[in-house]
Amino acid sequence: MISLTMRFIKIIFFIYVFLISTNLLSQSNTYNTSIPNKGEGLNAFLIRNNLNPTEHKAEFIELNKKNLGKKNSLRKDVAYNLPNTEKWIEEPLFGKDRSKFKLDSNILKGTVFHLVSGHGGPDPGALGKYGDKTLAEDEYAYDITLRLAKRLMENGAKVNMIIQDENDGIRDESFLKMSDDETCMGATIPLDQMKRLKQRTEAVNKLYAQNKPAYQRCVVIHVDSRSTGKSIDVFFYHAPKSKSGKKAAEEIRSVFNTKYNKHQPSRGYSGVVKDRNLYVLRKTIPTAVFVELGNIRNFSDQQRFILQDNRQALANWMYEGLLNDFKKHK
Ligand SMILES: [Zn+2]
Fold this sequence. Notes:
By secondary structure, the protein is an alpha/beta fold. It has three domains: about 30 residues; about 55 residues; about 240 residues, Aminopeptidase (3-Layer(aba) Sandwich), CATH 3.40.630.40. It contains nine helices and 15 strands. The chain has a six-stranded mixed beta sheet with strand order 8-5-12-15-13-14, with helices on both faces. The chain is globular. The chain binds zinc ion. Zinc ion binds next to β12. The site of zinc ion has 7 residues, from β12.
């Protein structure tokens, strides 16, 4: 008898937990409601609620079918559910927890960004030592590139991640595990440097042609090393004679200057804009900026990379610079 009672209590308990959990889940699907005015037709009602009838009528009818009259007429005193107009985007490359995110604005609508994270595949790029840990340039560049991609997409841009790693989303840990399974949009990355650079440049140029005449920019992101181990400023390179590249680089540098002066006034930061005869800059058809974010062998520069907040800040600043560039030079 006791065990039967216990079983009964258990069942009730599970039903209770189930109800709570489904209720919690359904909360993400709660809708705003609105009551029709007297004699108001469906189209007029939708328009009054800032919903475009062509876009939202079908969904509205689906949501409210139980409460609609003949020929989908609205009933008096019924609070109708309004379709959600929030737009969500999905990008599996950002990792499980971040693959679905909300569109914040359409400020970059119509733009296309080709983001090239440095190195990858068989080439980890520069290696730094931090205690007994090894920091690989390609992993940190990739994480920052993903964060930049997300910011751009959240604001309406179309982004092509040229270098991809299916299983490394945006990572919050300090020490990013090395892997060599990155691809160039699905294709194996060759070890030979010339072949490697040619592959990614051709990928960008192909996408550029497909997206013409949209506003397009290419950003190449590196975390480099200097043999001296000294702290370096952030370098923004553009192709020789590229006016648009120089402007884009200057816009990004200007954001970095402002932020560094605000956060580390004692450091005397100076980002450097320079032209440089690099293969990826020379051969890339869209306007391109090559960013070198610091020296992975320098202790103080390493702080820029191992803290996820700092990686996010670097991505945010590049985003702001690219946005300013777009606003001024589109
Ligand atoms: Zn590099």
